[in-house]
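sry for the spam today, last one i promise. C-alpha cells for design, 105 residues
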C-alpha cells in the first residue's frame, strides 16, 4: 500500500531542493499500467510531449495547467482529468504534486 499524501509531500520537498524544480517517483508498475507521482515547483513546466494511449492526471496538491494546441485546462487539488491522446504540456501554477496514471501498449 502507498500513502500518496506522504509521497506527494516528500517529492514536493525534493522538488524545492532541486535545481530543476521537479521530482518524480514511479510508484506502481504492473504492465501495461504505470503510476508516477510528479512534483513541480510553481512556474516549472514539463515540455510538450506525446500522450500514452490512455492516461489520467490526478492532482494531489496545488494547481497545474495542462496545455494543448487548441486549449488549456487548469486543475486544482482533488481533480481527476482524462488526458486526451494528443501532445500536451504541464505547468505548475502553484507548487504541485500529481499522480499520472498511464496505460501503454
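last one done:
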Amino acid at each position: 500500500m502507498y500513502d500518496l499524501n506522504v509521497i506527494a509531500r516528500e517529492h514536493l520537498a525534493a522538488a524545492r531542493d532541486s535545481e530543476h524544480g521537479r521530482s518524480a517517483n514511479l510508484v506502481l508498475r504492473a504492465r501495461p499500467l504505470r503510476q508516477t507521482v510528479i512534483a513541480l515547483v510553481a512556474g516549472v513546466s514539463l515540455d510538450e510531449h506525446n500522450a500514452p494511449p490512455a492516461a489520467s492526471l490526478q492532482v494531489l496538491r496545488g494547481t497545474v495547467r495542462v496545455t494543448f494546441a487548441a486549449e488549456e485546462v487548469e486543475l486544482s487539488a482533488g481533480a481527476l482529468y482524462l488526458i486526451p491522446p494528443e501532445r500536451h504540456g504541464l505547468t505548475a501554477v502553484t507548487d504541485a504534486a500529481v499522480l499520472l496514471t498511464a496505460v501503454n501498449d
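The chain has a mean pLDDT of 93. ok im logging off now
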